[in-house]
Design a protein that fits this description.
Length: 128
């Protein structure tokens, strides 16, 4: 069986292979759209099965604490991974004086209400 990504690519290839009638062309676009939506929901289901960012941070710290022949690049990668994982833990946004504009708790970037992630630094935002 092929993956969803391959199916999407194949449909796009089919679409480009021939000058389709408007109906067929639109149907192929819809097929690509439906496959992308399917891929998205599978990605979400996979994420739900994965560990929480807090657990991953703990596990990565344990990995870094092993006495292995680490070099600077390994440490740099682990550091980067840790700070990326920390941003996966949602933080509350601080509202600013201007209505409907909010501050990122990590970098202070302004963004509109209900953004799930800061578009500047990737911090996950908790709107609860
Ligand atoms: Zn930010």
């Amino acid at each position: 069986m092929i993956t969803i990504e391959q199916a999407i690519q194949n449909i796009i290839d089919i679409k480009n292979m021939y000058t389709w009638s408007t109906g067929a062309d639109e149907a192929l676009d819809m097929a690509v759209y439906a496959l992308r939506e399917k891929a998205k929901s599978e990605e979400k289901a996979k994420r739900r099965r994965m560990m929480k960012p807090e657990e991953a941070i703990q596990a990565v710290k344990e990995v870094a604490g092993m006495s292995l022949p680490w070099n600077d690049r390994h440490y740099e990668a682990l550091q980067m991974a840790l700070s990326a994982l920390e941003k996966q833990i949602p933080k509350k946004s601080c509202s600013t004086s201007s209505l409907f504009r909010y501050n990122c708790p990590s970098c202070g970037n302004h963004f509109p209400l209900n953004g799930k992630y800061c578009d500047k630094c990737g911090q996950a935002i908790d709107w609860e």
